[in-house]
């Protein structure tokens, strides 16, 4: 992946308008204030500190497993309580650098990293994306959408769909009830908080759906999405996020 960030060749291919824009608003690294050659670049030193998730991981939820694990192994949590989704995958572990990427996207509305994020997420869920009939974002209640003016999950879903050559349905899921923020809640509290808040709009009988969100914390939101899609007839529901929490201390996002 490191070679994809060598910007010289790609920079020459960018349009004249984009290059002129860069003269006025120089692109900056996704993880620092450093000026870079093109949008979406991360300098090598910080790039090497990102923790990408890979096998061995839980065959169901994607939680990292100890080295030497079997690709079909599942974690203790999924063994004790099978999630409503078929599989969930994430590109990155949610750590300090990833937190900055997420918050710049989620609270700052920074979009220049979307093509890069989509590549990472598409690689993390390559098998699931390949068989998906369409990609759908985790929904945001209309009042929060009106206040924020964007849904970062929808941005990510559109980028992932484009990267995988798949249709995306931004209105496939809707939040019919506004609930309090999930930040700081335990796993069981998150499940209760989001219960009954998400509905599927339309019929998806026999379809395979890939749901996209920014962060997998406890999986409560993705499970609510999966249950709604299954009620609408979906045969398989998979999920992919830009990052996932791998330490209990991180559930405050």
Q: How many DSSP E strands? A: 6
Structural class by sheet pairing and helices: alpha/beta
Instruction: Report the helical percentage.
Output: 25-40%
The N- to C-terminal Cα distance equals 28 Å
SS strand fraction: 5-15%
How many helices in DSSP terms? 11
Note the overall shape: globular
Rg over CA atoms: 18 Å
Instruction: Give the SSE string.
Output: HHHHEHHHEHHEHEEHE
What is the topology, as strand order, of the major beta sheet?
1-6-5-2
Average pLDDT taken over every residue: 84
Number of separate structural domains: 2
CATH class of the largest domain: Alpha Beta
Uncertain parts: 1-24
The largest β sheet comes out as:
4 strands, parallel
* CATH architectural type of the largest domain: 3-Layer(aba) Sandwich
What fold name goes in the CATH topology slot of the largest domain?
Answer: Rossmann fold
Can you describe what's shown?
This protein is an alpha/beta fold and 253 residues long. It has two domains: 49 residues, no CATH class; 199 residues, Rossmann fold, CATH 3.40.50. It has eleven helices and six strands.
In short:
The chain has 253 residues and is α/β, with parallel strands linked by helices. It is built from eleven helices and six strands. Helix 6 packs across helix 9 and helix 10 packs parallel to helix 11.
């Amino acid at each position: 992946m490191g070679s994809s960030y060598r910007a010289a060749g790609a920079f020459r291919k960018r349009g004249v308008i984009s290059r002129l824009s860069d003269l006025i608003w120089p692109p900056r690294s996704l993880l620092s204030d450093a000026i870079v050659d093109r949008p979406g670049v991360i300098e090598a030193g910080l790039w090497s500190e990102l923790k990408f998730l890979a096998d061995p991981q839980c065959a169901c939820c994607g939680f990292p497993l100890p080295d030497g694990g079997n690709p079909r192994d599942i974690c203790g949590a999924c063994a004790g309580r099978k999630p409503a989704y078929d599989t969930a995958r994430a590109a990155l572990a949610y750590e300090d650098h990833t937190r900055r990427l997420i918050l710049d996207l989620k609270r700052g509305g920074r979009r220049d990293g979307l093509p890069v994020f989509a590549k990472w997420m598409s690689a993390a869920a390559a098998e699931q994306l390949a068989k998906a009939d369409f990609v759908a974002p985790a929904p945001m209640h209309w009042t929060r959408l009106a206040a924020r003016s964007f849904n970062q999950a929808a941005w990510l879903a559109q980028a992932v769909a484009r990267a995988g050559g798949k249709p995306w349905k931004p209105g496939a899921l809707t939040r019919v009830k506004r609930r309090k923020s999930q930040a700081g809640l335990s796993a069981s509290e998150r499940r209760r908080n989001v219960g009954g808040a998400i509905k599927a709009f339309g019929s998806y009988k026999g379809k395979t759906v890939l749901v996209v969100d920014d962060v997998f914390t406890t999986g409560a939101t993705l499970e609510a999405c999966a249950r709604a899609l299954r009620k609408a007839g979906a045969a398989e529901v998979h999920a992919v996020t830009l990052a996932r929490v791998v330490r209990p201390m991180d559930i405050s996002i």
